[in-house]
Amino acid sequence: MNSNPKLLEDALRRTGLIAILRGVRNTEAEAIGAALYESGFRIIEVPLNSPEPLASIAALRKSLPADCIVGAGTVLKTEQVEQVKAAGGELIVMPHSDGAVIRAAKNAGLYCAPGVATVTEAFAALAAGADVLKMFPAEQLGPHVVKAWRAVVPREIALLPVGGIAPHGMAAFREAGASGFGLGSALYSPGLSADEVRQRAQAFTAAWKALA
């Protein structure tokens, strides 16, 4: 199956928020995924340094509607791409911008969001086939860097700051040209119940809608 660019575009347009479930356990993934989906999230990633991440990805993919993209984060090696695909994952998210991993993701028919911290990395990632750009770490880069990048990165390319994003901090990034956000511990951390995740997710989606 080749990735359909429109599905990713639609997901980001609906709610430009990506849930990062670092540390989630496969026994709780389905309930937490449902809470996120009901709150408006349409992109969910399970970092590969979580417990049994492939089982969690499989559980999410089987339980969520087709308009929700499920994938893996912290993908570091090309061989991990096929493992994610076999589990039902559709998205490869990376902390870095290794062209070999990006190309492996695209050859496998998956979406790819590499992590980039400079304009040089950004354009190299796009040349390798990246679908969107994960600006990481957002705390270090800041809204002023997003604004500078937006002047040279084509408007149709999504810029997604990740790292330290909270509901009250999204406005400055959005005004600078951010297309959406990857959300980590402010949305989910190990031990939170599905109801607690739902409350946090609703706070994020409310903040997102207020920026529209």
TrEMBL record:
Pathway: Carbohydrate acid metabolism
InterPro entries linked to this entry: Aldlse_KDPG_KHG, Aldolase_TIM
Superkingdom of the organism of origin: Bacteria
Coiled coil: none
UniProt entry keywords in alphabetical sequence: Carbohydrate metabolism, Lyase
The protein's Enzyme Commission number: 4.1.2.21
One Pfam assignment: Aldolase
Gene3D superfamilies to which the protein is assigned, alphabetical: Aldolase class I
Subunit structure: Homotrimer.
Family: Belongs to the KHG/KDPG aldolase family.
Protein name: 2-dehydro-3-deoxy-6-phosphogalactonate aldolase
